[in-house]
User: What shape does this take?
Amino acid sequence: MSLRVSTKIEGLRELDVALGEFKKSTARNILKRTLMQAAQPMVDMASRLAPDDPATGPPDLHSSIIASSKVDNKTGKKDYAAVMEAGGSQAEAREALIAARRAGGEDSFAIVLVGPAKSGRKNSIKANVQEFGSVKQAAQPYMRPAWEASQGSILDSIKNILAAEIAKATARAQARALKLAAKKG
Assistant: This one.
């Protein structure tokens, strides 16, 4: 069982306009850096709340809590494989993958996930049982309390960190433009 929590933030129009001034890849990287930095308090709290057996050393649940922008996106992989099996080129297969992802409603520009690092099916099951419990074991939640305790500070820090990241990226872009102008002139 997996619990997915989504939050909608409104009132950041100015920051959205500022991000629109950058290339798409730069804007995405700004958002990823911001979200990774803002998620760290939740990572720290979840690590503190996760059950820890002192008799076992790392890797354990306590030390495996991370924030990651790497998402295992399976959308479009079947389309890619179908084009390749039919004798299509890699470019055609890539186009099929991209089209499937666009059609699939993949509208998230940047995603950061917080939770136990992937370390096999057995450990994933154990992590879920710790959080939600089972017939034989009471729940020992660590992710939900971490989110509830840190969501206010995370949401506040996103705005501040994002503004700082945009300012840094703008300064880098201006410095790059000046350097390019100096070479030409």
